[in-house]
């Protein structure tokens, strides 16, 4: 939080020190780059500036902005592109966020208005809608299911595979396949299920972690050691060491390949795909939103979730009826995202998802 505030203060100070001409040149270079992805030259700016100035004057201004670390020259040509620092300053101080268009609103509403009882399917459609509207890759972090447990069952599928069936009090059912301890018998399966159900009813999975550890240690003599191992192995399917079991939904990755013919750009996208496939540090995706409500923008290396430098993430949390952050939605793409249009889309989608989940109770 302190780092973000310091960065914004620094950006505001630099903007305040720029004269009107320098500020306009900087803004038009960034807007031109975000629109086309190409370097912006001084000659093209002479046709759009509010005052009549020569290309030589604009080139001098560009050189000054480059010296400040706000612009860069990617090639020998005179065209300039914004640096990551420049993009950050533009987003913090000059970005004009548009309003959600009626067409975008209707498409989002239509996507979420079908089969609202199934949260998983709804969030899948949210991801598809976001990627379609923004032409980027969408990320949706689904909330972990925390309803009280009604019943748990272990079913043997093969010597090295077992199925654990979890029935929640709200009727939600989850089935997971896992590897049981070697030598598991049908009687041990029944014994393990009886032991779990004697403790589980009315509690959530996260509530049970400490209780099971204590009970297994205290009652080791009463239950077969294999049954104890089965309990621990089966419940580990739902719980990692931190008690998280969120699901990251990724849609629209093919959109990132469009307009990226250069080998360097393709290598960056492949690196991003690798991160998306591994879905590592999923919890960080939610942590990115913990500094308060609203949309946050991460540019390039500011985005700690992915190793790829040169991508941007626009993300917003969604909340339940108790105003607790339970998930997040976002869009990832190149740094030249249309931030002014994408921000209201992500913001509206997050608010709508939170409302629908809250309405379901």
UniProtKB/TrEMBL annotation:
Keywords: Repressor, Stress response, Transcription, Transcription regulation
Domain Heat-inducible transcription repressor HrcA C-terminal residues, every copy: 122-343
Gene Ontology molecular function: any one: DNA binding
SUPFAM superfamilies linked: GAF domain-like (SSF55781), Winged helix' DNA-binding domain (SSF46785)
UniProt keyword annotation of Transferase present: no
GO BP annotations listed: negative regulation of DNA-templated transcription
Protein family membership: Belongs to the HrcA family.
Stated name of the protein: Heat-inducible transcription repressor HrcA
UniProt organism field: Allgaiera indica
């Amino acid at each position: 939080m302190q780092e973000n505030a310091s960065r914004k203060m620094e950006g505001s100070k630099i903007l305040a020190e720029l004269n009107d001409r320098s500020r306009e040149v900087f803004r038009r270079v960034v807007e031109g780059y975000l629109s086309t992805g190409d370097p912006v030259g001084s000659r093209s700016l002479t046709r759009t500036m509010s005052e009549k100035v020569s290309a030589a004057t604009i080139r001098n201004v560009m050189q000054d902005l480059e010296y400040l670390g706000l612009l860069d020259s990617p090639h020998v040509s005179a065209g300039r592109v914004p640096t990551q620092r420049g993009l950050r300053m533009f987003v913090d101080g000059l970005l004009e966020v548009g309003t959600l268009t009626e067409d975008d609103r209707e498409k989002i509403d239509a996507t979420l208005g079908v089969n609202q009882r199934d949260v998983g399917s709804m969030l899948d459609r949210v991801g598809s809608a976001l990627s379609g509207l923004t032409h980027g890759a969408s990320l949706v972090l689904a909330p972990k299911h925390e309803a009280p447990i009604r019943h748990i069952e272990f079913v043997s599928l093969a010597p090295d595979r077992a199925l654990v069936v979890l029935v929640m009090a709200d009727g939600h059912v989850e089935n997971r396949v896992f590897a049981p301890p070697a030598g598991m018998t049908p009687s041990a399966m029944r014994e393990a299920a009886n032991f779990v159900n004697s403790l589980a009813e009315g509690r959530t999975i996260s509530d049970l972690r400490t209780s099971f550890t204590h009970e297994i240690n205290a009652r080791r003599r009463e239950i077969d050691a294999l049954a104890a191992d089965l309990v621990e192995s089966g419940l580990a399917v739902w719980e990692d060491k931190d008690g998280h079991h969120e699901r990251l939904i990724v849609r629209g990755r093919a959109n990132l390949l469009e307009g990226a013919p250069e080998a360097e750009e393709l290598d960056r996208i492949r690196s991003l795909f690798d991160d998306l496939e591994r879905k590592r540090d999923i919890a960080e995706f939610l942590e990115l939103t913990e500094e308060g409500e609203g949309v946050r923008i991460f540019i390039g290396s500011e985005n700690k979730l992915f190793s790829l430098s040169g991508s941007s993430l626009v993300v917003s949390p969604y909340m339940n009826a108790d105003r607790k952050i339970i998930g997040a939605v976002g869009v990832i793409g190149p740094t030249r995202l249309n931030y002014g249009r994408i921000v209201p889309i992500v913001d509206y989608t997050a608010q709508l998802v939170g409302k629908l989940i809250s309405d379901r109770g």
